[in-house]
Design brief:
Length: about 525
């Protein structure tokens, strides 16, 4: 029997050898795209899989899926994970169904395709757009045009969605994420409300209590003592809200109850359009501009009961005239002062023409039994803080720039980058060496594994060094500001909002009036 040639055997082995491109398949599906059959997750995956199967130099390493996210922003969890894996050397090729799946923002999409991917030696493939960065003929002006068309499409879809939402509001169709407490979305029509058998009776009881002259504090106490879940916590128990959406809501509070008892939705009218979005921020509109559509659903209470409750509150809801002629002074402790027992914000109240107190918000918004009677006079708080700041023995030497450390990090970063580029070059040349017969299959596998580990370790070290550089620069900048502010304290007798913001992260006040201060530079100080 004739002996097979070793050369033929090696050639056959090389033909089935593992590829050099580790592919990350990126799949994105926006809320609108879910309605398009051709853009389903399964379809995108099948198109990418088919492409990879036709290219022996590619192998699927990981699939990244962003479901229900817009292409206008690149702050998407799966996309960011893919970028991280690229930097660590796990993948060196990104494949998408088409350019619109990568993004619908022409500038940012162009940046990743034309700058980021090439600088990180990452091959990019958009299958249906016939774009492959490994092909020198791809791209050009058509790539930019397609990105601009994709962005225009996204903006057009956004306008259509907003127009549809506004039309639904005008027609009295419910468009909110959650139904009002006491209602559910109709399973047959999500734009229609139906009473919730479990919560509707609670709403009725609250209106009856209010009509009988029982105040919101007493209603809140009854609800909390009865173990009745507040709205968001209730929706979470029904599987309608995530833990993040609950946002720490544990108890009923006065503000929630007051808003509920003022809402016309409970007597059968739809009230929407209370807010408008401007520059990504919500702004509440005056009541005269709200969109009210009567008799859109079954009411939980009668119109007579609703009117009776509103009448009882007419006088109490009128803004009280201030007994002080002078305007309030600036609150320099906004979002800085918290109760040391329950952790909630302390509210500032005026007690005289020139005096202000801070009081635990739990006492004001919830039940008095939920926390201790924590309060402190503003002037006393300022005195304590000034004395604490002046006594603080800060070591600013550690905040001064250390040129040796800076040079050491910079030098190592350059060395790491050089080694990274060198190893990536060796890694790319492995497959060519195998094809040319310079190395055999076993050597290829062993060397490929070694280079993958080296590249991964170097990429991780590069990431650490960059973070260390950023942290040092930020620390030096912050410490310089702190040093300037601390120096200025020797010459002032009162605090300002700027000084407080620069130096203090959080102030905790306790029942016995002692305070705990957490500084921005990491120190913690207590003062009795």
């Amino acid at each position: 029997m004739a002996r097979k040639s070793r050369k033929i055997f090696e050639t056959t082995s090389r033909e089935i050898q593992k590829p050099i491109y580790n592919v990350g398949a990126y799949i994105r599906l926006s809320v609108f795209d879910k309605k398009q059959k051709g853009d389903s997750i399964e379809t995108q995956q099948a198109i990418i899989d088919t492409f990879i199967a036709e290219h022996p130099d590619m192998e699927l390493r990981e699939t990244y899926i962003d479901n229900g996210l817009s292409g206008q922003s690149f702050e998407r969890p799966a996309f960011q994970q893919m970028i991280s894996d690229m930097e660590c050397g796990k993948i060196n090729c990104c494949a998408v169904k088409d350019l619109s799946r990568l993004g619908r923002n022409a500038i940012d999409t162009g940046y990743y395709i034309e700058k980021y991917f090439p600088s990180n030696n990452v091959r990019f493939v958009a299958v249906n757009d016939n774009y492959d960065s490994a092909d020198g003929q791809s791209g050009g002006i058509m790539l930019s045009l397609k990105n601009m068309v994709n962005e225009a499409y996204a903006l057009d879809i956004g306008r259509k969605i907003r127009a549809t939402k506004q039309m639904n509001i005008q027609n009295g169709c419910f468009v909110g994420r959650f139904p009002p407490y006491g209602y559910l979305k109709d399973p047959k029509d999500n734009h229609k409300l139906i009473p919730d058998p479990d919560a509707a009776s609670i709403v009725q009881k609250m209106f009856e209590m209010a009509a009988n002259g029982i105040g919101v504090s007493a209603i809140a106490k009854w609800l909390n003592e009865s173990g009745i879940l507040p709205p968001k916590r209730y929706f979470h128990s029904k599987g309608l809200a995530t833990e993040k959406e609950v946002n720490g809501q544990i108890h009923w509070n006065k503000a929630v109850i007051y808003a509920l008892l003022k809402n016309r939705v409970y007597c059968g009218d739809m009230v929407q359009g209370k807010y408008k979005t401007h520059s990504y921020a919500q702004e509440k509109l005056p009541e005269s501009e709200w969109v009210v559509t009567e008799n859109t659903h079954d009411g939980i209470i009668s119109r007579e009961l609703f009117a009776e409750v509103q009448k009882l509150w007419e006088k109490s809801s009128e803004p009280k005239k201030s007994q002080y002629c002078d305007p309030k002074t600036e609150n320099i402790f906004v979002r800085k002062i918290f109760c040391g027992h329950c952790g909630r914000t302390m509210h500032r109240t005026r007690t005289s023409k020139t005096q202000y107190n801070f009081k635990c918000s739990t006492q004001l918004m919830y039940d008095k039994s939920d926390c201790r009677l924590v309060s402190i006079n503003e002037n006393l708080l300022k005195e304590k803080l000034l004395e604490t700041l002046r006594k603080q023995n800060l070591d600013f030497e550690k905040c001064e720039p250390v040129s040796n450390a800076e040079n050491s990090v910079g030098s190592e970063l350059r060395d790491v980058q050089t080694e990274l580029d060198k190893n990536r070059g060796f890694f790319k040349g492995l497959y060519e060496s195998l094809v040319n017969g310079d190395i055999n299959d076993a050597e290829y596998k062993e060397m490929k594994s070694v280079y993958e580990m080296r590249i991964s370790a170097l990429a991780e070290r590069k990431k650490q060094l960059r973070q260390a550089t950023h942290d040092r620069i930020r620390q030096e900048s912050e410490c310089a500001k702190v040093s300037e502010s601390m120096g200025a304290l020797r010459h002032i007798s009162d605090l300002t909002s700027d000084t407080v913001d620069r130096l203090i992260e959080k102030i905790l006040v306790f029942e016995d009036k002692h305070i705990e201060v957490k500084f921005r530079f990491g120190e913690v100080a207590e003062y009795e």
